[in-house]
Amino acid sequence: MSIISALRSALAGRPDQHPSPTNEQIADWLRTTPEALVAFEAAYSDFEDRSPVSENFFDVNSRQAAAMSRAGNGARAEADQEAVQNIVDGIVDALRHDPAALEAGPDAERSDGVSLDEVMALPERLRPQLTGTRVVRDAAEPAYPVLVAALERARQEQDDDQREQLLLGINAMLDTFDLDPVLYAALSRNPTSMGHWLGALERAVATTGFLRVPETTVRRVPLPILQMTRLGYGELTPTTMEIIDAWTREAFELDESKSYFIRTGTYSSKFDFRNAHVHDPAEVREIGRYLAYIQFQANQMASPLNQPGPIVGVSTTNEWVVREWIEDESGSPTIYHGMPLRTEFRCFVDCDADELLAVAPYWDPEVMLERFEQRADADDPDMRHDAIVFRAHLPVLMERFERLRSTVEQEVAAILPALELEGQWSLDIMLNDDAGEQLYAIDMAPAASSALSHHVPAGRLKKTSVDWMPRLTA
């Protein structure tokens, strides 16, 4: 049996006339035989090219969703071009001048950007579902009375387990309910969202000049646009999509000649890296609809209809983020549909004590191999590919981790006195070269809710809570 036949058989999950080689056997081939790697990636690309769009909503990426949405809505009629463009321009202008998205209070002066007559003059399939102040909602009544009542019950609850359940319900409300100014303001309270910690991190790394932070733009998403992620993504009209795209291009000052890494304030959806890496002019023009889909998909995780159960808090944020794309210089293979498998360090720090608590490999071998090889989807071609690539590259990942661990520990410890945050955090450091001269501080989150927190010494990890009660301007 040839290497190519064996690899195709392995990815297909069928033995043909010979036993399928194990992941470990294939990984050994990839490490020692250059032509095996070429054959393996060719076999996987063939499967990717021939694979239909998944019927599992959570396996559909933003490019696929945007394409399906375009196909369902159709192109706008030539006769509508000028009217639609005038409406798009007017609404985007109104949204640009009201970036706080209605947080300024009920008496603030705002503009819709267009008249209701202009909107209604369009065919229904082309009408925008938002203006500068108005939005389409699922429910007629505002959600904030339910939220505020739940927050008060949680505040008064004495039983820890009951309070935890109430807080999970509150988080689900924040992820799924129609937005109003109170819910929008509550989303601003999430410390995990990048706008809360990025500035502090940038100032801290500047004190030593060794660690880098990717060039990053964080923007609060206007409430009318963010509300669109609470509706069915496939129900958004072409005009609505154009408004989202146009606002995003202006807000982030996008350059179509550049590549970007995109995410919400709390979620990158990197497990299908086609969601996160935007790298050609056509994609850059559509970054808004990609971000809207990532937010929509994350919010749907909190739905009570999600099986086997809701996952709350994935994207409890009103921020979108566009970062520079860091080209890989370490020769990494890719997993997750194109993500370079670079060595990363997850550091746990106590900012109150200026103490480094633990450093763990972000790609923890035990955790990753359990995910790839021990679950029900282990024979899926994507899982099989990623498991094999991970096994093949694991010696390189761990050699770099161990060789540069002390450097990372020293550099992180050096910035802690200047890191003006409260409590315990995880801090992710990405290596972009073999020598260790390009170390990027790329992400942070409260330590207690971060994966790999079991690496923190017993008894040292502190629980954290979020005060979701919004602060509104009178």
Explain this structure to me?
By secondary structure, this protein is an alpha+beta fold. The protein folds into three domains: 1-51, no CATH class; 58-324, no CATH class; 330-474, no CATH class. Helix content is 43%, strand content 11%. The protein has helices at 3-12, 23-32, 34-50, 62-73, 81-96, 116-120, 144-156, 160-176, 181-187, 194-206, 223-228, 238-252, 281-285, 287-300, 365-373, 381-415; strands at residues 216-220, 260-264, 277-278, 319-324, 334-335, 339-340, 344-350, 355-361, 424-431, 439-446. The strands form three sheets. The protein has a four-stranded antiparallel β-sheet, covered by helices on one side. The protein has a four-stranded antiparallel β-sheet with strand order 8-7-9-10. Strand 9 (424-431) and strand 10 (439-446) form a beta hairpin. Helix 7 runs antiparallel to helix 8. The radius of gyration is 24 Å and the shape is globular. The termini are far apart.
